[in-house]
Specification:
By secondary structure, the chain is an alpha/beta fold. It has helices at residues 12-22, 39-47, 58-63, 72-78, 90-101, 122-125, 140-155, 194-199, 234-243, 259-269, 305-315, 321-332, and strands at 3-8, 27-34, 50-52, 81-84, 104-107, 118-120, 134-137, 158-168, 184-185, 207-214, 220-228, 247-250, 278-281, 286-288, 291-298. Helix 1 packs across helix 11 and helix 11 crosses helix 12 (321-332). The chain is globular and about 65 Å long.
Length: 335
């Protein structure tokens, strides 16, 4: 039997998770929700069947000519698990609804860690989510950091990590808000929340992070410095990154001089230019005076999608980490 998956919030992340679920042979989408009758709601209704996230708005969808199959409560009756892709903090408000319906739930990184039994990153702590009822997939930035640090932790003894997040200010479709001209420390008081978020999946890593918002919508950029005991072989690090499908190496010599060039590549490479992988600049990987330096870019709209799929398998004990990641990678074209 396939795991029946509901998507609560058919937006930037929700529609990508729905499409990813539809590619798996051990799970299926039983419906998606929206709060208002917009173009995404119309597409969701046509592809997966639409339910009203707010019950008293059913008539608004019908007045707009969008077919609605019922409310979120109706959808939960059909589901084994709901992937909550609501805006930040709304997921926590939805949790009592899931508990009442007796369904498992996955929350996204915009929620506080305590909303779930465990925070999740496939490479970092897959086994911690096995059999759990409520799991939180960490944010895009934390996912990117956790992948790299999980690999390095397996190779070396990490003493300290310092990472700076240079963050896109909004997603491309968000035309009502944004930083037009400036660079914003976010937060001004250090450290940023990303370090504590990393510790929810890598509790043994000593990490401090800072973050800044800049007026771009394409990707986040991370500048990472890892203090390591002993000597480090840059060639070994590069080789290990090359072996990991969820890390993709880019080179300045091939013209990848900015995040704009990486996104241009992704437009030709995959549907919606989704880059599920960490985009690491090969030339940035250097070891100097006891510290390993890495620069990477993170496609914030897509990077957490494979982790959501792996989390479903872990929660229903469908596969171990290696098998799940291999299957997810294959279906999403991560090679």
């Amino acid at each position: 039997m396939k795991v029946k998956v509901a998507i609560n919030g058919y937006g930037t992340i929700g529609k990508r998770v729905a499409d990813a679920v539809s590619l798996q042979d051990d799970m299926e989408v039983v419906g998606v929700t929206k709060t208002k009758p917009d173009f995404e709601a119309r597409m969701g209704a046509e592809k997966y069947g639409l339910y009203a996230a707010i019950p008293d708005r059913v008539k608004a969808f019908e007045d707009a000519g969008i077919e609605v199959k019922g409310t979120i409560e109706d959808l939960l009756e059909k589901a084994d698990i709901v992937v909550d892709c609501s805006p930040g903090k709304v997921g926590a408000e939805n949790k009592p609804l899931y508990e009442k319906a007796g369904v498992k739930a996955i929350f996204q990184g915009g929620e506080k860690a305590h909303v779930a039994e465990v925070s999740f990153s496939s490479l970092a702590n897959y086994d911690d989510a096995v059999g759990k009822s409520f799991v939180r997939v960490v944010s895009c930035n934390t996912t990117g950091l956790a992948r790299v640090l999980s690999i390095l932790r397996d190779m070396y003894e990490l003493r300290k990590v310092r990472a700076t997040m240079i963050r896109r200010v909004v997603d491309p479709k968000e035309d009502k808000k944004g930083l037009v001209n400036g660079i914003m420390p976010d937060p001004v008081k250090l450290p940023s929340h990303h370090a504590e978020d990393v510790k929810t999946v890598l509790p043994d890593v000593n990490i401090v992070t800072t973050a800044f918002k800049v007026p771009t919508t394409l990707m986040h950029l991370h500048s990472i410095a890892v203090e390591i005991d002993g000597n480090v072989s840059v060639d070994d690090v590069i080789s290990r990154f090359e072996e990991e499908p969820r890390i993709m190496l880019f080179s300045k010599e091939e013209g990848f001089t900015s995040t704009a060039k990486i996104i241009e590549f992704a437009r030709e490479y995959r549907l919606r230019y989704d880059l599920f992988e960490n985009a690491v600049w090969r030339e940035s990987i250097n070891f100097h005076d006891g510290e390993l330096y890495i620069t990477q870019a993170i496609h914030q709209e897509a990077i957490v999608v494979p982790e959501n799929i792996d989390a479903i398998r872990a929660m229903f004990e469908l596969a171990d980490r290696q098998e799940s990641m291999k299957k997810t990678n294959r279906t999403l074209g991560i090679v």
